[in-house]
Every structure is written in structure tokens, then in C-alpha cells.
Structure to design on (246 residues):
């Protein structure tokens, strides 16, 4: 595989990221719904508009 | 030997094999920087995501797979690929380092997925969905220009004792871009 940057640089850049929402949102598009973490209430709610448990607006 | 030096074996039904020999392989939807492929898990995606699956070098693996999956009249098609410059290779430490860091950066989400991984029916599709997301991330961040396939060792249930071991019993290539296939080499094996 031809990477455009050195592996060490890529690893360090990813280390600085929070990819929780990115992964959760993309997995929902495949039908895997992950409840997001709510730091205030510690409660969990479905995070995708198509999820059957997501409240309708 | 490099990835491109091996022969690959695709297990399918005789009917599908005849169609492939006549029309070529079906091109699955390509991953792009801007639009992830939407695919309901009910339609099924493999553990390496969406693409044409083939076993590396060992024809019997494709035959065992086809016998288990297709039951009636399996057929094997062999082919070689033109190059491996843009194949995401999970058998080298560089790819594993990046992938592990990607998962660590989404640790909370991964933890939430734990119950889904306990369901063996979903675990392969979930792996595939994570791989598809990982590939899109690599392209969006311009870490790679494009990805034409994914290559990794695997543990397959061939109906023998080998699938009880943690030691991989096969190597699989999932082709995302069928233009990588050397069409002159496609044949019924």
C-alpha cells in the first residue's frame, strides 16, 4: 500500500483525534447503531434519525 | 513473493461462474472520499467489507468455501491481479499500527459495539462495516490516494478442525476495484 505520509506521522495524527462520533455515524449507515455517550446525564440515546428508538421531531 | 504474484481463487456457483466467464466480474460500488457505501447488514457484507472475495494461492479453500456456502454445483474461477500498489495489506505491521490507532481513537464506540460482537451472526458484517469506514477515513484524510482491495489472513470454517484454532488457516483478498484483475488470466479452475 502506498501511503502518502510516513507511518509514524499518520499514527501520531490519528492519536490526536477523537473518532468516536465518526465511527458511530458511519456504522449507523450500515445498520449498526451505537448510542452516543452523554457526559451530562450519563444516559444513552440512539444517535441516528432512522433508528427505531430515536424520538421523532 | 508479493500480493500481486499469487493466483486467486473465487468460489461460486456454476451459474454465476458462467456469467462471470461471459460478462466479467460485477463491479461493487466503489468507496469514495465523500460518500460511504450504504449497505444494510441484512443484505450481508463480509468481514473485509464490500467486494469480490477470493482465496490466495490455495484452490482447495475456495472449493471448501463454495461447498459450504453454495452446496450445489460449486465452481472455482482463478485470476491474477495487475499490481498491489493500492491494496490495504493487513499482514504487515504498518497497516496494523494505523488500524489499531484508528480503533483506539474510537475506543468508546468500540466498547459500545461489544454486545454486537458477541452475536456471531453480526460480527463479520460489523468487521466489514468498520473496514469500510476505516478505508473512507484513510482517503478523506489523504493518507492514501485510493484503495483497490483488502488483503488479510483469516480463520475460515471449512468444516474441518482448523477453524477451532486461533491460527489463521487462509489468506483472503477482497477486491474493491475489479479493474485490478488481469482479465487475460481469468479461467475456470
Amino acid at each position: 500500500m502506498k501511503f502518502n505520509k510516513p507511518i509514524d506521522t499518520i499514527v501520531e495524527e490519528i492519536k490526536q483525534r477523537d473518532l468516536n462520533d465518526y465511527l458511530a455515524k458511519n456504522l449507523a449507515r450500515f445498520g449498526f447503531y451505537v448510542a452516543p455517550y452523554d457526559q451530562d446525564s450519563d444516559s444513552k440515546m440512539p444517535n441516528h434519525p432512522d433508528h427505531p428508538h430515536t424520538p421523532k421531531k | 513473493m508479493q500480493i500481486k504474484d499469487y493466483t486467486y481463487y473465487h468460489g461460486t456457483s456454476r451459474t454465476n461462474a458462467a456469467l462471470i466467464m461471459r460478462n466479467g466480474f460485477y463491479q461493487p460500488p466503489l468507496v469514495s472520499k465523500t460518500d460511504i457505501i450504504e449497505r444494510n447488514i441484512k443484505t450481508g457484507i463480509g468481514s473485509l467489507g464490500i467486494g469480490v472475495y477470493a482465496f490466495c494461492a490455495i484452490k482447495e479453500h475456495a472449493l471448501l468455501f463454495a461447498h459450504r456456502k453454495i452446496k450445489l454445483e460449486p465452481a472455482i474461477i482463478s485470476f491474477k491481479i495487475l499490481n498491489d500498489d493500492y491494496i490495504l495489506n493487513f499482514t504487515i505491521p504498518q497497516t496494523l499500527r494505523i488500524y489499531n490507532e484508528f480503533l483506539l481513537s474510537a475506543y468508546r464506540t468500540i466498547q459500545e459495539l461489544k454486545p454486537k460482537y458477541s452475536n456471531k451472526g453480526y460480527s463479520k458484517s460489523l468487521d466489514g462495516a468498520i473496514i469500510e469506514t476505516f478505508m473512507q477515513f484513510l482517503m478523506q484524510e489523504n493518507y492514501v490516494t485510493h484503495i483497490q482491495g483488502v488483503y488479510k489472513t483469516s480463520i475460515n470454517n471449512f468444516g474441518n478442525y482448523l477453524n477451532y484454532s486461533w491460527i489463521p488457516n487462509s489468506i483472503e483478498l477482497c477486491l474493491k476495484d475489479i479493474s485490478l484483475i488481469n482479465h487475460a488470466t481469468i479461467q475456470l479452475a
Remarks:
- Residues 10 and 137 of chain B are 28 Å apart (CA to CA).
- The beta strands of chain B are 8-13, 52-56, 74-81, 87-89, 149-154, 170-175, 181-188.
- The interface with chain A takes residues 36, 38-42, 45, 85-89, 94-95, 97-98, 101-102, 104-110, 112-113, 116, 122, 125-126, 128-130, 132-133, 136-137, 141-145, 147 of chain B (CB under 8 Å).
